[in-house]
Structures are given as structure tokens and as C-alpha cells.
Design a protein that fits this description.
heterodimer; A: Rossmann fold; 3 domains; seven-stranded parallel sheet; 18 helices; B: mainly alpha
């Protein structure tokens, strides 16, 4: 049966797809986003008019309230806060799908067929998991909760039990001829257990694993909408939800590859990071001693800087800066934390002024969400053609005179190639060690998130500037 | 719309989406994600219909909340994406 709704729906879907296609280049992406949003707006109007509910004022009030809150959020958020913003929006989408499923299950009890019951139960589950999981991610990303993984006793067991219970309950509510009370009770149980599962899922994910979690929750929020579409027999919901689901899956896959993790390990919580926590504690003490003996001459603590040290550093860095013709900056989450992107722009301008070639090497998992560094650097006005991805950067390092690492550690750690058995072994890294000179502006010499010591710190061509990245970069600028 | 047809649409959308999105460079992954985020608010279509059809005041309130949340998702998502995409400029 082909209705006018189906036809217009198809046109709008094509609009969304065309919008995504335009997202493949920064030149056309703005237009793509615009086409996507217009298609969405038309879809809302189409739904309202097709169902003859254009004049229901309650709906309009809800749309306006939501729209105003959305605008306020979008205007207020800073680029550094983007990961928690995206996580929050994921959660809201998930919550909305879960509520829709609840209404279908409660309101239409009795005249739902098997497909509707099954898919409503599933949409309720995925939506609720997305909601609670995203809220935990927001709390972690915004520092309201500790970034470290939190593990319950018998965490894996609780997860398995929850999943089994949810599956069981969905089967129960899909049975024909169950009593109203049973139907309601199990529906509510699905909701609460899914909320619990979402919390349990997110709470044991640590800071640097966040890119994977956000991508996965993104995928879930789409799937929840898609499954709700099955319950309502609405093709638009099914199709657009599925596209979002696919997008989230791709990003999850890219993030997993870039961190050398399998998706299964992340979902089941075997992130290896727990082991690494111990390494940080043990390794820290050893490391301080080791460093005192090997690197005294080239490691500087910016926190305790005096004039004399200043001169030594400038005399050391000055010639390197002068002679370097090709420069590469490697930003990490430390740059975002220190808000150092503004002073990086200053440094960039200085190099450009002197006629040197300068680029930025961006690891896929640098930061707390996919592409986080690119957005921060674009915001301060770095042209996007200077933001290179992993392969492009690695092709350039052996011809690079100077690398400046700003708040990144694991992604430049050569131990990833050699240290078998460590969490980062096999992870693709930025091969900065191939460059002639390396300046590292990190807070300290503690290992990164993975807990693996960075042998780079002991190399002869490396100069460490320890302390706040902004102060260290200022020193570099002054050394010109 | 019958179930099988929906399932076919689901699979096609997954495949086409996967193909298109694979072409988006890592440079734009954050805006891609927030844009997709906005799209996941498509569930608003479901909440509009469900709310209008709800008979009981309690369900209407639930539906109202669902519409508000999904609209925040859509409007917030598209606007944030727009803000970010506008920042990407080429070297003069």
C-alpha cells in the first residue's frame, strides 16, 4: 500500500541521505547539515498533518518548549564541553524513544500485535539503556563523577543477569492473553532493569575509553528510534533511526581500531585498564627515580621556573626553532584541559610568519570523542587542511624537523610497537620518534591513561617541558 | 506497512548509511556525531502520534515529556553541528 505519506517520507529520507553525503567535505558540510535539518522539520509537519493533529496545541507547546531549551543549550555550550553535550543529547533521544515505547505498551494494551509488543519492549530497553548510560557518561565527562572506572562486586554477573531478565520480560509481555497486571509489572521491570544496566555499563568505563562509549551510545539512540518505528509501523522512524545506528557503529569501530580494543571487550568491560591502574601506582615511584638519573639535563619543570633555568631552556630551544623548516604539533586531551588551543594558534602564526611548514597530527582517539581535537583547533582558526589524520601524519614524521607534543602521551608512545602484553600493544600510534627533534609539553612524566611508561621521554632528541601546557608553550614562543 | 517491508527498509538504510558515512573524513567526526544525534531525535514523530492518541492524562504528560526531550535533541543537535561546521575554514 503506497500512500502519500510513504512518498513524501521517501523524499525526506533521500534529503537526509543527501545531507550526509555532503558531510564528506568541510566545504559542503554546512549545507548538508541544513538540508538534514529542513528534512527533519518537514517530517514533523508531515506527521502532524497526515495524522490530522496539526491543531493539537499540547503538541505545539511541547515542540516549542523543547526547541527553546535546545537553542539555549546549543548556544551556551563551549567546544571543550562538546563530548558531554553530545552524550547528553544521546541520552535525551534515548529517553524519548523509551517513553514512546512505554506509552504504546500502556495505552494500546490489548490491541497490539506480536511485532508491536516485541519491538516496543526492545525500544524501551535500548532507549532506557541509552538514557542512563549517557547520563553517567555526562557526569564523568563533566567531572561531576570520577573518571576512573568503577566496578561493582560481581559486575559481569549482574550484567548477565540483567540481560537475561530483560529478554525474559520482553518474551512475557509479547505473549498473547496475559493479564493487564502482569503486562504492566513486566513492562516497568524492563524499564528499571534497563536503567540499571545502562548505569552498570557506563560506570566502569574510564576517561580515555569515552570515545568508544559515546560512539556506541550514539548508535543505540538511533537503534532505539528505529525499533520504536517497528512498533508504530512508521517507515521514516525505521529508516532514519537505522542510519544513525549505522553511523554510530562505524565510529565505534574506528575508535576500537584506533585503541586496539575489540568491541566485545569494551561491552563486557574487559578494558585492561583495571590492570593498568595498578601499573600507574607501582610505575610512578620507579619512574621518578629513573628520570632523575637519566634525563636531568633536558627535563624542565615549568612550575618551578627561574630566570637562570629560563636562559638555559631558551638557549636549548632557540636554535632548534630557528633551524626547523617543517614542524608538526601533536595535540592531546591535555591541550583541551589546559585550554592551550589559543596559545597554540599564536605559536602556529609565529611559525607561519617565519615561512615554515606547520601541520597538526591528530590521532583518532585524541580527546574524549571522535574528532574532538579538530573542532578545538578549528575554533581558534587553524585552517582545516593543516589538520592531518593518522596516516597522513605518519607519512611526514621522518621528514619533520620538530615535533611539539601538547598534552598527549599514549598516542605517541613507541612502546605500543614493542611492549607486548601491555594495554597499548598493537595500537596504531603517531610515529613522532622518527622526527629530528621533539618537544614534549606535558603536565608530568607519569604514564598516560594506559599506565604504560613512555620510553620516548628518555630519548636524546627529546626535551621535556613539564607543567601547565600554556606556560610551556609561552616559553617556546619566547624562545624564538 | 507490513513488518517484512520495514525490515527490508531497515537493512537498506543500514547499508546505505554505512556506505555514506564511511566517506566522512575523521576531520569532521565530531560534527558528524552531533548531526546524527539530531537525527536520532526523529523519534519525535513517534511521540507526537502517541501523545495525540493517548487517552489518559498520565500518558499525555509522559508524551509531552517525550516530545520535549526529542525536540531538544533535534534542535540542539542541528544547531551545535552548524556552529561547529562553520568554524572549519581553509587556509587563505
Amino acid at each position: 500500500m503506497i500512500t502519500i505519506y510513504t512518498v513524501i517520507g521517501l523524499v525526506l529520507t533521500l534529503g537526509v541521505l543527501f545531507g550526509i553525503k555532503l558531510m564528506s567535505s568541510p566545504k559542503t558540510a554546512v549545507l548538508g547539515n541544513l538540508i538534514g535539518s529542513i528534512s527533519m522539520f518537514c517530517a514533523i509537519i508531515l506527521t502532524l498533518s497526515y495524522n490530522n493533529i496539526l491543531n493539537v496545541s499540547l503538541l505545539w507547546i511541547a515542540l516549542i518548549v523543547g526547541g527553546v531549551i535546545g537553542i539555549i543549550l546549543a548556544v551556551k555550550v563551549t567546544m571543550v564541553q562538546m563530548p558531554q553535550m553530545v552524550a547528553l543529547l544521546n541520552g535525551l533521544g534515548g529517553a524519548s524513544s523509551a517513553i514512546v515505547a512505554l506509552i504504546i505498551l500502556f495505552n494500546n494494551y490489548g490491541d497490539l500485535n506480536l511485532v508491536s509488543r516485541l519491538s516496543s519492549g526492545l525500544a524501551l530497553t535500548i532507549g532506557a539503556i541509552t538514557f542512563s548510560g549517557s547520563l553517567i557518561a555526562v557526569a564523568k565527562l563533566s567531572g561531576k563523577m570520577k573518571q576512573q572506572p568503577i566496578v561493582f562486586k560481581a559486575h559481569a554477573f549482574l550484567n548477565t543477569i540483567s540481560i537475561c531478565f530483560i529478554v525474559f520480560s520482553i518474551i512475557i509481555i509479547s505473549l498473547p492473553n496475559i493479564s493487564r497486571v502482569v503486562h504492566f509489572t513486566f513492562t516497568m521491570m524492563i524499564f528499571f532493569v534497563s536503567i540499571f544496566y545502562g548505569v552498570a555499563f557506563s560506570i566502569r568505563v574510564g576517561g580515555a575509553d569515552m570515545p568508544i562509549t559515546i560512539s556506541l551510545l550514539n548508535s543505540f539512540s538511533g537503534l532505539a528510534a528505529s525499533v520504536a518505528g517497528f512498533a508504530l509501523y512508521d517507515p521514516l522512524l525505521v529508516v532514519i533511526g537505522a542510519i544513525v545506528g549505522a553511523s554510530g557503529l562505524i565510529l565505534t569501530q574506528i575508535m576500537c581500531n584506533a585503541m586496539n580494543r575489540s568491541l566485545r571487550d569494551v561491552i563486557t568491560g574487559r578494558t585492561l585498564v583495571l590492570k593498568a591502574d595498578k601499573v600507574i601506582e607501582n610505575g610512578h615511584v620507579n619512574h621518578v627515580n629513573k628520570e632523575a638519573t637519566t634525563k636531568e639535563s633536558k627535563s624542565f619543570n615549568v612550575f618551578e621556573f627561574d630566570d637562570k633555568q629560563n636562559q638555559i631552556v631558551e638557549s636549548l630551544i632557540g636554535p632548534i626553532l630557528k633551524n626547523a623548516q617543517t614542524v608538526m604539533i601533536v595535540p592531546g586531551y591535555g591541550m583541551a584541559l589546559a585550554q592551550a588551543q589559543y596559545i597554540i594558534k599564536e605559536l602556529h602564526d609565529k611559525f607561519v610568519e617565519k615561512g615554515k611548514e606547520i601541520n597538526f597530527a591528530i590521532h583518532p582517539v585524541a580527546g574524549r570523542m571522535p574528532g574532538h581535537m579538530n573542532v578545538l583547533l578549528a575554533e581558534v582558526g587553524i585552517p582545516y587542511d593543516k589538520l592531518l589524520d593518522l596516516e597522513e601524519s605518519n607519512a611526514k614524521f621522518s621528514n619533520t624537523d620538530l615535533v611539539i607534543v601538547v598534552g598527549a602521551n599514549d598516542v605517541v608512545n613507541p612502546a605500543a610497537n614493542t611492549a607486548e602484553g601491555t594495554p597499548i600493544y598493537g595500537m596504531p600510534i603517531l610515529e613522532v620518534y622518527k622526527a629530528k627533534h621533539i618537544l614534549i609539553c606535558n603536565k608530568d612524566t607519569k604514564p598516560g591513561y594506559s599506565g604504560v611508561d613512555n620510553p620516548l621521554y628518555n630519548d636524546d632528541n627529546v626535551i621535556l617541558l613539564l607543567g601547565d601546557a600554556k606556560d610551556s608553550l609561552k616559553i617556546i614562543i619566547n624562545s624564538f | 506497512m507490513n513488518f517484512l517491508l520495514l525490515l527490508v527498509l531497515f537493512v537498506i538504510a543500514m547499508i546505505v548509511g554505512y556506505k555514506l558515512i564511511s566517506d566522512v573524513p575523521s576531520l569532521l567526526h565530531t560534527p558528524l556525531m552531533s548531526g546524527m544525534n539530531a537525527l536520532s531525535g526523529v523519534t519525535v514523530l513517534g511521540s507526537l502520534v502517541a501523545t495525540a492518541a493517548a487517552v489518559n492524562t498520565g500518558y499525555k504528560i509522559l508524551g509531552f515529556i517525550a516530545i520535549v526531550l526529542a525536540t531538544i535533541n533535534i534542535v540542539g543537535g542541528f544547531m551545535v553541528t552548524h556552529r561547529m561546521l562553520k568554524m572549519f575554514k581553509k587556509d587563505k
